[in-house]
Amino acid sequence: MSDDDLEQMYQEVILDAARAPHGRERFLESAPDAQTHAGEGQDSHQASGDAEVLAEHEACLAAQSHQFNPTCGDEVTVHVEVSEQVPYTLERVVWDGQGCSISQASLSVMVDLVEHQSVERAMKLSDEFHRLMQSRGAGLHDESVEEDMGDAVVFQGVSRYPMRIKCALLGWAGLKAAIAQALANLNESEKMSGDTALVGQGSTISDARE
């Protein structure tokens, strides 16, 4: 297959993914506060007055991040639900937003790759995708990595165009920020549980002394 044929095939995959993107849900329609526009890279919990983000799955902590690309006008809110037990797993990944075919297709492929995967694997895939976007069209020259990335390799051609790289990376930035927030919430929850246990122990000791 020639380079031109391969590029055409990649473009078709991107367009198909953009027409019927996976993981897209209109969850912001039922949460008007979350639609407040955030600056580029700003998390939705900052933009929506620290509104509580609820999880559909039991034993999961949810978080979401709103990302905006002022150059293209793309914007997305990525919602994740991370299991509370090790190994931390992305039990649910959905998104709501609008943008060009590249940003929408990248989000669709991202959901297929990371949902139901461990946080560690999701971060590995994110790093690999960032490397691909920095390749300037050359690719990664590593068959095992490219196989691991699945359909994400179709964005190799996008990496030739600096203005489009941000479109492809928008959803991945939201994913990383949302995961970071979910893990921070988890750490805070564990800390509060520990503090509660210590208070309970203190009460037991006081009762015993009395």
In short:
With 210 residues, the protein is of the alpha+beta class. 50% of the residues lie in helices and 14% in strands. It has six helices and three strands, in the order ααβββαααα.
Tell me the overall shape: globular
Q: Name the poorly predicted regions.
A: 32-40, 42-50
Number of discrete helical segments: 6
Q: In angstroms, what is the radius of gyration?
A: 20 Å
Lateral arrangement of strands in the main beta sheet: 1-2-3
Helix/sheet category = alpha+beta
Mean pLDDT value? 84
Strand content: 5-15%
Total beta strands = 3
- The helix content, as a percent range, equals 40-55%
Largest sheet: 3 strands, antiparallel
User: Cα distance, first to last residue?
Assistant: 84 Å
Protein architecture, described:
Strands 1-2-3 form a three-stranded antiparallel β-sheet. The chain has helices spanning 3-19, 44-47, 101-114, 119-133, 143-149, 162-209; strands at 60-69, 74-83, 90-98. Helix 3 (101-114) packs across helix 6 and helix 4 (119-133) runs antiparallel to helix 6 (162-209). 38% of the residues are buried. The longest helix is centred in the last third of the chain and has 48 residues, at 162-209. The chain is an alpha+beta fold and 210 residues long.
Helices and strands in order, then pairings?
Elements (H helix, E strand, L loop, with lengths): L2 H17 L24 H4 L12 E10 L4 E10 L6 E9 L2 H14 L4 H15 L9 H7 L12 H48 L1
Antiparallel strand pairs: 1-2, 2-3
Q: Which key terms come to mind for this protein?
A:
210 residues, alpha+beta, 14% strand
